Amino acid sequence: MQKWWSIMFFLMIFPLIYLCINRVFHAIVMYITMNVAIMLVFIYAPTEKMQGIVQKIFYFHVSSAITMFFAFFLVCVASIMYLWKNSDWWDAIALSAAEIGVVFCTLVLITGPLWARPIWGTWWSWDPTLTLTLVLWLIYVAYLMLRIETYDPKRARFAAVLGIIGFVDVPLIRWSVEKWRTLHPKPVLIQEGGTTGLTSAMLLTFLVCLGAFLLLFFYLLRERISVAQSRHALEVLRHDIDEIGVG
Amino acid sequence: MKNFWYLFAAYSTIWTALYVYMIRLSQKNKELQAELRDLRAQLERVLTK
Predict the structure, then answer these.
(1) CA distances from A24 to A29, A30, A37, A159, B39 (A)
(2) Measured between alpha carbons, how far is A7 from B39 in angstroms, rounded to an integer?
């Protein structure tokens, strides 16, 4: 079991290391990891006996969910730092992580029903886990709507507060998966007592998928921060030009 | 291969959405960088006159 935890640790730490390395190398590593992940899902990982081939949605559904939680955690931390330091850098991180988090949350909300339909017999159920995930999506969509217009420090501060409060929903989702008796299955990755409900081949496949999505997350984050910084620089430059009276 | 359609739909959605988002982000980044370069050049020209 310790061996798997070590693998998981390294998969989590690699994206942070790659973040510091150049963009092209990051993209190449991400592309290779993605392809390996897809190959593992369709060639190496065994087909689950009860659910059949549709269970393979699990690998990217859960990876999307964990990436989404990580993104919203980053929004929360960056928002706290923005309110504390009043730095545009932290605001750019919070805004970028929120947008990417919404993308992954949307994927969770689409792939979940596609998995649920053949297994539960329904696309959607208003059970606590699903409802709280939808609420989480709505909170961060509201966050993005607050930030649609040009940079306004007042709106940025208000969005930062929303980003922090919105994160409260994340532990609630985790708690609802563990404690509530709902249609949504209990956690299989880490069960009570620290054991896993997955076979070693499934666990390895899942960890590679998770690593691939975290690499993708950091790649997208880097790109999105660059967009946010360029937009801000443009606004500052336009303001300077207006003051000078150019054109 | 029962329920293959659901698996196909899920994976198609994931990769299409991520691909479109990545391309859109990359294009936006290039557009903004170009606009920034143009404005800086314009400002520099005016200031050096």
Answers:
(1) 9, 10, 20, 33, 27
(2) 48
Quote the DSSP letter at residue A44. I
Q: DSSP strand E in chain A: where?
A: none
- pTM, two decimals, is 0.88
Alpha carbon of B19: minimum distance to chain A alpha carbons (Å): 11
In eight-state DSSP terms, residue A193 is: T
Identity at A97, one-letter amino acid code: A
A240 close to B (CB below 8 A): yes
The encoded tokens of residue A230 equal 């360029």
Instruction: Give the domains, in start order, of chain A with CATH numbers.
Output: 2-244 (1.20.120)
Find the CB nearest A246 among B4, B25, B43: B43
How far apart are alpha carbons A14 and A30 in whole angstroms? 11
Q: Which residues of B touch A (CB under 8 A)?
A: 1-4, 6-7, 9-11, 13-14, 17-18, 21-22, 25-26, 28-29, 32-33, 35-36, 39-40, 42-43, 46-47
- Put simply, the chain A residues between 161 and 220 with a CB less than 8 A from any chain B CB are 216, 219-220
> Per the structure block, which two tokens stand in for A173?
């989702």
Both structure tokens of A134: 């939808």
Nearest to A246 among B29, B35, B46 (CB): B46
> Cβ of A30 under 8 Å from any chain B Cβ?
no
Other beta carbons within 10 angstroms of residue A45's beta carbon come to 23
Distance, in Å, from the CA atom of B2 to the CA atom of A241, rounded to the nearest integer, reads 63
Encoded tokens for A164: 């922090």
Rg (CA), chain B: 21
The ipTM is 0.89
pLDDT tens for A91-117 read 999 999 999 999 999 999 999 999 999
Pair A40, A212: CB distance under 8 Å: no
